[in-house]
Predict the structure.
Amino acid sequence: MTGTLLAESLINGLITGAIYALVGAGVALIYGTMRVLNFAHGEMMMLGAYFAWMGVAVAGLPVLLAFALALIGVMIVAAVIQRAVVAPVLAREDWSFRVIAATIGLSVALQSAAQLIWGEKFNALPYFLDGVVQIGPMRLPWQRAAIPIVAFVALGLSALLLYRSRFGQMIRATAQDAEAAQAVGIPAGLVHTAVFALSAGLAAIAAIMLAPIMSVNPWMGLPYILKAFAVVILGGLGNFGGAIAAGLLLGLVESFGVMVTSSEWRDVISYGLLIAIIWVRPYGLFGGREAA
Amino acid sequence: MRSVLGSRPWLTLALIALVLAAMPFVIDDNYLLHILILFLIFAVFATGWNLTLGILGQKTLGHHAFFAIGAYTTALLSGTVGLSPWLTLWLGVLAAALAGGLIGIPILRIRSMPHVAIVTLAFAEIVKLLLANWKDVTRGELGLWGIPPFPAIEIGGTTIRFGAGQIAGSFALALLAFVAVHALVLWLLRGRFGLTMVAIRDSQLAAESLSIDLTRSKLAAFALSAAIVGLSGGLYAHYLQILTPTSTAGPEMLVTLLAMIILGGVGTFFGPIFGALVLTALTEYLREYGDLRMLIYGATVTLFVILLPRGVAGLLTRRGRPAAAGDEPATAPET
Amino acid sequence: MTIRRTLMSAAATALALGAGAASAEEIVLGATAPLTGPAANSGEAHRQGMELAVKEWNEGRGDYVNEGGEHPTFRLVIEDQNSKPEVAVSAVQRMVTRDGIKLLLGDTLHSHVTMALMELSPQFNLPILSIEPVSTLIADKVVSDPEKYAMYWKGNYNSEGYGNAVDQFVEWATGKGLLDPGEKKLAFVIEDTDYGHANADTIIDLLGADGWTHATTETLPAGSTDFYPVLTKLRAEDPDLTVSVFTAVNSGVALVRQMQEQAIPGRHLAIYYPTKTEFVEQVGDAAEGLVWASLQYAPELSEAHKAFDDKIVAEYGNPSTYSQAQAYCITMLGMRAIEQAGADDPKAISDAIGASDYECLTGRLVFNPENHTVIDGEGYIPIPVAQIQDGHNQIIWPESSASAEMVQ
């Protein structure tokens, strides 16, 4: 493998990994706070991309305004979903499995709703950043270079919010014991809703950054959801930082895996790695026993 | 155990079998019988999966992999190698059981439900990708065709034929498998095995203190569950005579079967049968609605979870008496 | 017993559902198409083409064999197969039993679904005519058991069709100095379907005979959009000609854009995806100069195609692609066969399809009696190579029908 090839694979891996980190961190955040695996998380990506596309390509809004509106739109949808679907199920027995079933149903329903509303056509969001950075023999369009940058800004802000703010304290208190938190005056229900919205926002950012490169369609969230789950398990369930690290790692493994074998084996490599690691370290690479 | 089986399970099973057996004489419509054959096959699948999901309490999401393993094993051994489907069906079952044992080992060490769910889901995805990539043998997504039907058999001068166009024979065979599997599971559940399973589900610690060999019992249950699902895969392969990796081990199979079990009632013996019947009929009915079909399907699953958490079976049993405490496993966060 | 009652009522409901009967004078045509899922884009186009053909026929504007005579009236039933063979098999069972279809137009898109449907032809004594599937394996299957598949007909040419065209085009273009063969290194980026593999295999064989060496084939799942790792690998191989095969337009758009960004060396020849109308519009400048196969349907170049496109726009409000045209032509061909043979004898319908010689939008449709597949090439179905110039498609090969010169 030559130096250029190595460097390019590294960059490819980091970019894919940044997306996995954005989506995976959201899944981890939801799991960490309310022990819910959200199978409709991929559809939050899909909605984010469609909302952005509607804003830019249909309504002709300025790019940044359209993205801000898309982000807010997805967060509202997520909040509604948390209130209408997740919260009622959480009150039931055996909820941890039922909520999986409920969100799987929701995921199917959202995909076909999107097909009904926006049609089966593949839509394209125009590139919003032009130009190509040339680093030695490597060519990196700004549109791609922006992905890891935006991802780390978004994840950094989320981390600040989680670990350095009053709101973050409330989230962590709720995560440890929702009833106890409620008892000391923390509105646990509202915290859950806010966490759901925040996570969906991270997924929407990933989708908006990807949309110009990969086209907007009702099924675009599908390939990412299982990857996000793998990331969350590898990072230690519910571990926000662990998910980010695992996301990057998975991106790199896939990128180098494709280099060595062939693209059709990419997903076999990632899921095989997941099962192998679970075998050796059942509670993830970065989490202790507690994180699970 | 009553919460799982309901009262008089043998009588109920016999009645269901009787009603189903009368169908070919009542219905003069090959298409409806075809739908009923699919229902019978999926009911076997649902019952097999429900053994781990509801009765053992292990929330696995990868049983469609065992369906594919059972289906592809028998299809390849009969179609490509040329063995008799009557033999290869059981080799497919064996392969599924072995795979179940293999994936069961790491899974049963883990008590965290999400880990189990995701690892089994990833396992199914790997099986799907291997089937899709192993083109020289499986033909990948183009589909494995040329799967022979079960050879005709002769009983008392009448020849019974099987396979896609042979509705009467296929129906009889699917019904036989349906009754045999449910009788076997019922017999096991009524015995020591069933008590062990429910003890494990309701409390691992208590089961251990009762000196139940946890790992062995769980592995045995897991392998049995995989074997039954593998059997349904084999029946499917020789009935439809075409397989693709996505249609057997793809995520939609997971959604469909999960919906059947949830709708019927997780962890009840008759629930998945109801679920399979209702959803098979619903899928056909929704064809009239075209584009709306999958929307209604997904929404039905979500609404059932929210509004009828115990499924149809829960609705039926609730009327007589309130469910005893501890019937449902309290799967609180296991941290 | 509650359980029994539930079962009985479910059965009764199911029975009641099937009660809708067909009116006596109408001949029913059945079709299976992907109306849901990622291939719904094509399925919807097929629906439009088929419906338009039936509508025109019933309104007295069809391509009748016998202009002056009485024409039967048709009704079209389209069932979704969700890109799954077993769903399609169930759908056909249903259409045969419920609707009494006399001819199945199926599958409209997928080769793997067609493979499954072919098995039903002898069982239900049903003539089957597929619309867009190209897999050579289908034709091979017919040859392997001509008796069993006697009533199956393939309305599109074999996968080699494109391969032959690409081979002849490359030979022509290198001879003219329009394509620099360099060291004759050949690479492929294809979707992981029979369609992708069949095209690549044919081209490797044919160009291999002309001295081209095969450097690499990168296979990705259909619908993929992240090509960066693959392109990194491709650039290291430094190919002189890269052939890409995708059916989903989003894959094609992503690939062409990403190849331009990454400045992949050598020529790029695209197969199939540029037929979609949104392709040029979504790729933008990156598509400039792209050479692709095959421009069989070009409203911007052909009067007849323009007229058809206008009808689709008037009827459905969207522009048309090759898929609408192909579905229209094959549906028309099927109805013409029934017009000649009557609706009562499946064998006669099948024979009439096999004896067709019908000039339609996509070419002259004549079946090869050996493999039941329409014949491609000069005088039958032309497979022209096109180039995108100034944002428009131009035919550049064969020279006899070229609308513009190839630009380097």
User: Anything to note?
Assistant: Residues 1 and 167 of chain C are 70 Å apart (CA to CA). The interface with chain A takes residues 36-38, 40-41, 43-44, 192, 218-221, 223-226, 228-230, 232-233, 236, 248-250, 253-254, 257-258, 261-263, 278, 282, 284 of chain C (CB under 8 Å).
